[in-house]
Amino acid sequence: MINFSSHIKSKLPGAKTTIFTQIGQMANELGAVNLSQGFPNFDVSQELIDLVTKAMNDGFNQYAPMQGLLELRQEVSNSFFRNYGLRYDANEEITITAGGTQAIYTAISTVIHEGDEAIIIEPAFDIYAPGIKINGGIVRSYRLEGDDYKIKWNEFKLLITRNTKLIIINTPHNPTSTILSNEDMLQLQDITNGTDIMVLSDEVYEHIVFDKQKHQSVARFPQLAERSFVVGSFSKTFHVTGWKTGFCLAPQALMKEYRKIHQNVVFAGNRPMQTAIAEYMSTPKNMEISPLYEQKRDYFMELMKDSRFKALPSHGSYFQLYKYDAISDEKEMDFVITLLKEHGVAGIPVSYFYSNAYDNKVLRFCFAKTDETLEQAADILRKI
Ligand code: PMP
């Protein structure tokens, strides 16, 4: 018998089970208050659930079209036009996906060939680098160090070589909860102008931006939009991370190639969810979720104000970073384990999002939780 463990050549030799699974499992076993993985623990809109049930009862249980349900693509197109002023063609420039994750992987696969370079900005959501490597690409990391997580574009552009094919950005940003400004986007536009570099803009938190600031989608910047894949997700907007339904937008020529990969990866997204979400999205108010999360951010900060954890600013997404250097010298991963085992609260070490495990004594907490969960967590954290 062949021993496949020595025959199979790993495409991701260093990869382990993701930290979200590890910490999530430990939190469950220990009965800890779980602010680690980014998912809401409150109820989903009953109207939306009824719409899914109705779609199933109405018989919409077979394959959706490969590119997604037209009604939903039209709603996504309307939403981008309303919010960012760019009209994506629902027929040719929008594809519904099995979540943001598949949309991102597919965009990377569309662009990256063996030996191509892609730039990511660390701390980075953990699926970008593996997606690049699986496709034979080379990851170039720009690292944000210190506490403000601002991109210095004059340094960033030194990473660009003639092999650079893709830049991946993420705003609002997981894990730092920063947002890119108008000025950042103009800098990126400047840097990429006149090159054949494409941009993958992960905007899954587009509807969660605080303090009256505006989400700076690449769609607002015509010269960026023409070279960009934009990824969005209903996971975040409608608090349904388990539904794995998202989308990708790109100009026609890019989307044509994207769909060649998409149809061979997943063929089509989930049909009843698409029918329901299309109907729900036709009421734009259903996407106004910033006030809900701003109130949760403020509530958690208020609860934590007398603790020794120091809040770093959260401008968007449903995360907040807390610095613990006044409490412990432990490395982030060790401190997360101490917090879990000795105190019963789960967070995520930001070092996990760096390829060099840069350790700044900062943890990420998710505040997409009921007030009760936030109170339980803060009661414990305040005493440490
Ligand atoms: N991008 C970022 C920055 C995320 O935080 C997430 C979800 N954690 C995704 C993409 C993936 O979205 P989905 O759940 O729709 O696959």
- Helicity level, as a percent range? 25-40%
Question: For the CA atoms, what is the radius of gyration?
Answer: 21 Å
Small-molecule components bound? 4'-deoxy-4'-aminopyridoxal-5'-phosphate
Please identify the structural class as seen in this structure. alpha/beta
Based on Cα principal axes, name the global outline.
globular
Describe this structure as you would to a colleague.
- The protein is α/β, with parallel strands linked by helices and 384 residues long.
- The chain folds into two domains: 4-43 and 288-381, Aspartate Aminotransferase, domain 1 (Alpha-Beta Complex), CATH 3.90.1150.10; 46-286, Type I PLP-dependent aspartate aminotransferase-like (Major domain) (Aspartate Aminotransferase, domain 2), CATH 3.40.640.
- The chain is built from 15 helices and 13 strands.
- The strands form three sheets. A seven-stranded mixed sheet has the order 2-8-7-6-5-3-4, with helices on both faces.
- Helix 13 runs parallel beside helix 15 (371-382).
- The longest helix has 15 residues, at 70-84.
- The chain starts with a helix and ends with a helix.
- The model has no long low-confidence stretch (mean pLDDT 96).
- The structure holds 4'-deoxy-4'-aminopyridoxal-5'-phosphate.
- 4'-deoxy-4'-aminopyridoxal-5'-phosphate (PMP) is lined by residues 38, 99-101, 125, 170, 174, 202, 204, 233, 235, 241, 244, 246.
